[in-house]
Write a structure and sequence with these properties.
The protein has no helices and eleven strands. It has strands at residues 2-7, 10-13, 18-26, 33-39, 46-52, 58-60, 68-73, 78-83, 92-99, 112-113, 117-122. The protein is globular.
Length: 123
């Protein structure tokens, strides 16, 4: 089992920045990839970004690339999502997820999920 705990959400004005953290514990050696997803009220969950655990390959939703950056701190078993130039439409609950499977698609196959952290961007 892998446990994930997100932090770093909050309220920010448009144009501002936030950094989300996701700390992984448990069988972290089994992780293949970690990802960030988000879900706004009344909308489906959408893929944001992902990073492979061992070779740090990154993927982004096309609409977010350039504003969001995913990274990993090996020593802390923590993945970060740096979000810049935030817009009101970025308001969502952001979820961290992990998978043991080497799916080709970076947005699929996640078995472990965090509890989510709220990000609110005001105009």
């Amino acid at each position: 089992q892998v446990q994930l705990v997100e932090s770093g959400g909050g309220m920010v004005q448009a144009g501002g920045s936030l950094r989300l953290s996701c700390a992984a514990s448990g069988r972290t050696f089994s992780i293949y990839r970690m990802g960030w997803f988000r879900q706004a009220p009344g909308k489906e969950r959408e893929f944001v970004s992902a990073i492979t655990w061992h070779d740090l390959r990154t993927d982004y939703a096309a609409s977010l690339k350039g504003r969001f950056t995913i990274s990993r701190d090996n020593a802390k078993n923590t993945v970060y999502l740096q979000m810049n130039s935030l817009k009101p439409e970025d308001t969502s609950v952001y979820y961290c997820a992990a998978t043991n499977s080497d799916y080709v698609s970076p947005s699929r196959g996640y078995a472990y999920w965090g509890q989510g952290t709220q990000v609110t961007v005001s105009s």
